[in-house]
Amino acid sequence: MNIVRSLWRTAPAVRNAFVTNHTCIRPLSNTTTVTPVPNLEDVPSTVELDKLYKRVELEMRGIDPAVLLSYSWFCVAAASHLGIEVTKNWALRKSEKERHTLLRAVHIYKKHKVQYEIRTYFRFLHLQRLTGSTCDTYLEYIERNLPEGCALKVTKIECQKVPDHITPPTQE
């Protein structure tokens, strides 16, 4: 009973949910007008076809191989939920190393140097046979969940119609 009293004091929307008599429902008045739904023949047929992609290649770069592996599992799981076919998922064996050598002291002691190394790890994912809307939805979802320290590069290979100026060979 205390729960009902506290809900009664909170908000009108909550109170209306617990009201048992239905006097608050008002009938439609005579002044309401109904607009007819247009026929299908009246609607112009400007239907834009969706793009088709033969393959979408994802290149993931990062500084931590465990984070990249976890993110690639996430991408594969998201693709399976959307019904996207994942054909390849692999990583390079070696990381890309970038070394910088600096002097410890700016003006003297040339023998005393410090070397810094930056390692970049890569993972690749290939998706086959996507429509444009599915591809956009999938890419937006995985881009929003991209972890820190990772980068994503997307390459799309689109299927296009054969141009009109190219004709098939004639049978002679």
UniProtKB/TrEMBL annotation:
Its main location: mitochondrion. This is Small ribosomal subunit protein uS10m. Keywords: Mitochondrion, Ribonucleoprotein, Ribosomal protein. Residues 57-155 form the Small ribosomal subunit protein uS10 domain. Gene3D superfamilies: Ribosomal protein S10 domain (3.30.70.600). The keyword Nuclease does not apply. Belongs to the universal ribosomal protein uS10 family. The keyword Mitochondrion applies. PANTHER family: MITOCHONDRIAL 28S RIBOSOMAL PROTEIN S10, SMALL RIBOSOMAL SUBUNIT PROTEIN US10M. Pfam families: Ribosomal_S10. It is found in: Mitochondrion.
